[in-house]
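Below: protein 1.
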Amino acid sequence: MTGSRIRITLRKSLIGQKPKTRATVRGLGLRKLHASVEHSDTPDIRGMVHRVRHLVEVEEA
């Protein structure tokens, strides 16, 4: 996992989502629908992605 990156894209709206879910998406740096961010592939980031997996799309960067 050293040096590998993942691209996370927000694919579904946050409308109607629980506050914790919204906070997790914001913590990943996603603000708008279809916006993408790149993060290092760490267990912390993977845990956040797992929590919001129904809203985001993940790919290797």
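Below: protein 2.
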Amino acid sequence: MYLFRASLIAAPLLALAPAAIAQTAAPVVAQAPAAAYVLGPNDEIEVKVFGQPDMSYKTRIRADGTITAPYLGTVTAAGKTTGQLSDEMMQTFLRQKILSAPSINIEVTTFASKTVTVLGAVPTAGIYALDQPYSVAAMVAKAGGPRADGANTVILTRANGQVERIALTDAATAATRLVGPGDTVFVPNAEKVYVYGEVNRGGAFPVTPGMTFRQALALAEGPTLAGSTKRIEVRRGGKPLDKPTLDDAVQPEDVLVIKEKWF
């Protein structure tokens, strides 16, 4: 343990009154992402002691949740916010008379202890740090949003194994449901409806919530001149439906066939 004589402490530090110390430290607590984030093992932090550059350093939190801080020894960092850790270290400097008016700022340089995995039909699937609170919709957006072949729903698997299906079109849920450490967000491929026959652009099209066969036909650019919207066939599960209409709701894997007009 090293002790500094008061005469060796930088003048700016000596000039700080307790009220000034509080004013200097306040912005650290006010930083929303840092204040909300609880430190954990493998996070890397940068500790800056204002007016004492030789006492500033970067360090990674060990598996047991501790760091080795110059002049302070072993300090428990995990389970605390950066503001709480800096306040604790400043109090220790004061109590042990190492600095008379310490001002410490701590920032997270690498978020590693709390992550969410985003998989499936997104442009940039991967592991993302929970450096701040994220909703399901925000986390999908962070991965680039659903691809063109991606569904408008996600499968959220919690760290405890609980599984939930959330529609991205349900803004009230997707935008407010927060993800947590260890969660997995999976964007499946979009479910399809198939449109064939006398249409201008037959093929497979993504099924959207509430879609009707009329809307599916519109995606196929409508019937040809020889096609009849009154003569349609819908096959579901390999079997034809009885008297389908274009205003019926589509189900995934339905097949819509537009037949020729009777002349």
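Helices lie at 11-15, 18-30, 32-36, 82-95, 136-142, 171-174, 213-219.
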